Amino acid sequence: MKKKQKNVDKWWGKVLNCVKRGGKVSSKDALPNNTDAAAGGFVSHFRHSLDPKKRLTIPAEWRDQAGPLKRLYVLPGLNGDKCLYIYPAAEMAHRLAKFRQIGIADRRARVLARVLAANSELLEWDTQGRIRIKDDLLAQAGITEQVELIGAFDHFEAWDPEAWRAASAVGDATIEDALRYVDL
Protein backbone atom coordinates (compact mmCIF):
# COMPACT_ATOMS: atom_id res chain seq x y z
CA MET A 1 0.00 0.00 0.00
CA LYS A 2 2.82 2.45 0.89
CA LYS A 3 4.52 1.82 -2.49
CA LYS A 4 1.29 2.70 -4.29
CA GLN A 5 0.99 5.91 -2.27
CA LYS A 6 4.61 6.83 -3.08
CA ASN A 7 3.86 6.34 -6.80
CA VAL A 8 0.82 8.60 -6.54
CA ASP A 9 2.79 11.20 -4.56
CA LYS A 10 5.60 11.14 -7.14
CA TRP A 11 3.05 11.58 -9.95
CA TRP A 12 1.35 14.51 -8.19
CA GLY A 13 4.77 16.12 -7.76
CA LYS A 14 5.33 15.92 -11.53
CA VAL A 15 1.89 17.38 -12.22
CA LEU A 16 2.36 20.26 -9.77
CA ASN A 17 5.82 21.08 -11.13
CA CYS A 18 4.44 21.02 -14.64
CA VAL A 19 1.57 23.35 -13.69
CA LYS A 20 4.01 25.76 -12.01
CA ARG A 21 6.12 25.87 -15.17
CA GLY A 22 3.03 26.40 -17.34
CA GLY A 23 3.91 23.31 -19.34
CA LYS A 24 2.18 20.17 -20.43
CA VAL A 25 1.76 16.87 -18.68
CA SER A 26 3.18 14.34 -21.09
CA SER A 27 2.18 10.72 -21.53
CA LYS A 28 5.49 9.68 -19.92
CA ASP A 29 4.22 11.42 -16.78
CA ALA A 30 1.03 9.36 -16.72
CA LEU A 31 -0.12 8.01 -13.39
CA PRO A 32 1.34 4.51 -12.98
CA ASN A 33 -1.10 1.69 -13.66
CA ASN A 34 -0.32 -0.02 -10.37
CA THR A 35 -2.02 2.64 -8.22
CA ASP A 36 -5.50 2.69 -6.78
CA ALA A 37 -5.85 6.39 -7.70
CA ALA A 38 -5.71 5.48 -11.39
CA ALA A 39 -9.10 3.83 -10.99
CA GLY A 40 -10.62 6.68 -9.00
CA GLY A 41 -13.24 9.13 -10.08
CA PHE A 42 -16.16 11.20 -8.87
CA VAL A 43 -19.00 8.75 -8.46
CA SER A 44 -22.38 8.70 -6.72
CA HIS A 45 -24.57 11.70 -5.95
CA PHE A 46 -25.34 13.86 -2.95
CA ARG A 47 -28.05 16.33 -2.07
CA HIS A 48 -26.85 19.38 -0.16
CA SER A 49 -28.31 22.75 0.78
CA LEU A 50 -26.64 26.08 0.32
CA ASP A 51 -26.02 27.59 3.74
CA PRO A 52 -27.31 31.11 4.59
CA LYS A 53 -24.16 32.62 3.01
CA LYS A 54 -24.79 30.52 -0.13
CA ARG A 55 -21.80 28.25 0.51
CA LEU A 56 -21.82 24.71 -0.82
CA THR A 57 -20.20 21.86 1.11
CA ILE A 58 -18.21 19.46 -1.07
CA PRO A 59 -18.47 15.85 0.18
CA ALA A 60 -15.33 14.74 2.05
CA GLU A 61 -14.67 11.80 -0.28
CA TRP A 62 -14.80 14.12 -3.28
CA ARG A 63 -12.40 16.55 -1.60
CA ASP A 64 -10.02 13.62 -1.13
CA GLN A 65 -10.52 12.66 -4.78
CA ALA A 66 -9.78 16.23 -5.91
CA GLY A 67 -6.28 15.95 -4.51
CA PRO A 68 -3.95 18.09 -2.44
CA LEU A 69 -4.47 21.41 -4.26
CA LYS A 70 -7.84 22.10 -2.51
CA ARG A 71 -8.97 24.10 -5.53
CA LEU A 72 -11.86 23.64 -7.92
CA TYR A 73 -12.73 25.21 -11.26
CA VAL A 74 -16.43 25.98 -11.62
CA LEU A 75 -17.63 26.31 -15.23
CA PRO A 76 -21.11 26.94 -16.61
CA GLY A 77 -22.88 23.97 -18.16
CA LEU A 78 -22.58 23.64 -21.93
CA ASN A 79 -24.81 22.30 -24.71
CA GLY A 80 -28.01 23.12 -22.87
CA ASP A 81 -26.98 21.54 -19.55
CA LYS A 82 -28.49 23.81 -16.90
CA CYS A 83 -25.85 22.95 -14.32
CA LEU A 84 -22.31 23.75 -13.24
CA TYR A 85 -19.28 21.63 -14.15
CA ILE A 86 -16.79 21.40 -11.30
CA TYR A 87 -13.26 20.19 -12.04
CA PRO A 88 -10.38 19.65 -9.61
CA ALA A 89 -7.38 21.89 -10.35
CA ALA A 90 -5.17 18.97 -11.45
CA GLU A 91 -7.76 17.74 -13.99
CA MET A 92 -8.25 21.25 -15.31
CA ALA A 93 -4.48 21.69 -15.61
CA HIS A 94 -4.45 18.61 -17.86
CA ARG A 95 -7.26 20.05 -19.99
CA LEU A 96 -5.60 23.46 -20.19
CA ALA A 97 -2.35 21.80 -21.33
CA LYS A 98 -4.29 20.36 -24.27
CA PHE A 99 -5.83 23.74 -24.93
CA ARG A 100 -2.39 25.39 -25.07
CA GLN A 101 -1.55 23.20 -28.06
CA ILE A 102 -4.15 25.00 -30.17
CA GLY A 103 -2.68 27.76 -32.30
CA ILE A 104 -3.53 31.39 -31.59
CA ALA A 105 -4.87 31.71 -35.12
CA ASP A 106 -7.77 29.38 -34.25
CA ARG A 107 -10.56 31.94 -33.86
CA ARG A 108 -13.17 29.46 -32.55
CA ALA A 109 -10.79 28.30 -29.82
CA ARG A 110 -10.05 31.90 -28.77
CA VAL A 111 -13.76 32.71 -28.59
CA LEU A 112 -14.43 29.57 -26.54
CA ALA A 113 -11.55 30.39 -24.18
CA ARG A 114 -12.72 33.97 -23.75
CA VAL A 115 -16.35 33.12 -23.05
CA LEU A 116 -15.64 30.12 -20.85
CA ALA A 117 -12.92 31.82 -18.77
CA ALA A 118 -14.99 34.99 -18.30
CA ASN A 119 -17.90 32.93 -16.95
CA SER A 120 -15.91 30.54 -14.75
CA GLU A 121 -14.11 30.77 -11.46
CA LEU A 122 -11.35 29.08 -9.50
CA LEU A 123 -12.25 28.47 -5.86
CA GLU A 124 -10.46 27.06 -2.85
CA TRP A 125 -12.54 25.26 -0.27
CA ASP A 126 -12.38 26.39 3.35
CA THR A 127 -11.46 24.25 6.36
CA GLN A 128 -14.99 22.83 6.44
CA GLY A 129 -14.96 21.91 2.74
CA ARG A 130 -17.21 24.73 1.56
CA ILE A 131 -17.00 26.88 -1.54
CA ARG A 132 -18.89 30.07 -2.39
CA ILE A 133 -19.93 30.04 -6.04
CA LYS A 134 -20.70 33.49 -7.42
CA ASP A 135 -24.35 34.44 -7.79
CA ASP A 136 -24.21 34.67 -11.61
CA LEU A 137 -23.19 31.03 -11.94
CA LEU A 138 -25.77 29.86 -9.40
CA ALA A 139 -28.49 31.78 -11.26
CA GLN A 140 -27.38 30.42 -14.63
CA ALA A 141 -27.76 26.87 -13.28
CA GLY A 142 -31.07 27.70 -11.56
CA ILE A 143 -29.65 26.78 -8.15
CA THR A 144 -31.30 28.55 -5.24
CA GLU A 145 -31.32 26.41 -2.08
CA GLN A 146 -30.98 22.70 -2.75
CA VAL A 147 -28.12 21.32 -4.85
CA GLU A 148 -27.84 17.88 -6.40
CA LEU A 149 -24.15 16.97 -6.75
CA ILE A 150 -23.66 14.38 -9.49
CA GLY A 151 -20.44 12.43 -10.04
CA ALA A 152 -19.22 12.34 -13.66
CA PHE A 153 -15.92 10.45 -13.20
CA ASP A 154 -13.36 13.17 -14.09
CA HIS A 155 -15.47 15.99 -12.61
CA PHE A 156 -18.77 16.49 -10.83
CA GLU A 157 -21.78 18.63 -11.56
CA ALA A 158 -24.06 20.84 -9.47
CA TRP A 159 -27.73 20.84 -10.47
CA ASP A 160 -30.99 22.21 -9.20
CA PRO A 161 -32.79 19.00 -8.08
CA GLU A 162 -35.76 19.54 -10.45
CA ALA A 163 -33.49 20.23 -13.42
CA TRP A 164 -31.47 17.11 -12.57
CA ARG A 165 -34.64 14.99 -12.40
CA ALA A 166 -35.62 16.13 -15.90
CA ALA A 167 -32.10 15.77 -17.37
CA SER A 168 -31.53 12.31 -15.89
CA ALA A 169 -34.73 10.81 -17.27
CA VAL A 170 -33.12 8.61 -19.94
CA GLY A 171 -34.11 5.18 -21.11
CA ASP A 172 -32.08 1.97 -21.17
CA ALA A 173 -31.53 2.30 -24.93
CA THR A 174 -29.88 5.70 -24.44
CA ILE A 175 -27.59 4.35 -21.74
CA GLU A 176 -26.72 1.36 -23.92
CA ASP A 177 -25.86 3.66 -26.86
CA ALA A 178 -23.69 5.84 -24.61
CA LEU A 179 -21.79 2.83 -23.26
CA ARG A 180 -21.13 1.66 -26.81
CA TYR A 181 -20.01 5.16 -27.81
CA VAL A 182 -17.34 5.33 -25.09
CA ASP A 183 -16.48 1.62 -25.55
CA LEU A 184 -17.02 0.83 -21.89
Question: Mind explaining what this structure looks like?
Answer:
The chain is α+β, with helices and mostly antiparallel strands and 184 residues long. Helix content is 41%, strand content 20%. It is built from seven helices and eight strands; from the N terminus they run αββαββααββαββαα. It has helices spanning 2-21, 60-66, 89-100, 107-118, 135-141, 161-167, 172-181; strands at residues 45-49, 55-57, 71-76, 83-88, 121-124, 130-132, 146-151, 156-159. The chain has a six-stranded antiparallel sheet. A hairpin with a 6-residue loop joins strand 3 and strand 4. It is globular and about 45 Å long. Mean pLDDT is 83; it is low at 25-39.
Topology (elements, then pairings):
Layout: H1 2-21, E1 45-49, E2 55-57, H2 60-66, E3 71-76, E4 83-88, H3 89-100, H4 107-118, E5 121-124, E6 130-132, H5 135-141, E7 146-151, E8 156-159, H6 161-167, H7 172-181
Antiparallel strand pairs: 1-7, 2-6, 3-4, 3-5, 4-8, 7-8
Features:
184 residues; alpha+beta; 6-stranded antiparallel beta sheet; two-stranded antiparallel ribbon; 7 helices; 41% helix
Write down the overall mean pLDDT: 83
Q: So how many helices?
A: 7
In sequence order, what are the helices and strands, one letter per element?
Answer: HEEHEEHHEEHEEHH
Helix content: 40-55%
Radius of gyration: 18 Å
Low-pLDDT windows of residues: 25-39
**Extended strand count:** 8
Structural class: alpha+beta
Q: State the shape.
A: globular
Major beta sheet, strand line-up: 1-7-8-4-3-5
Distance between the termini: 28 Å
Largest sheet: 6 strands, antiparallel
Approximately how much beta-strand content do the residues carry? 15-25%
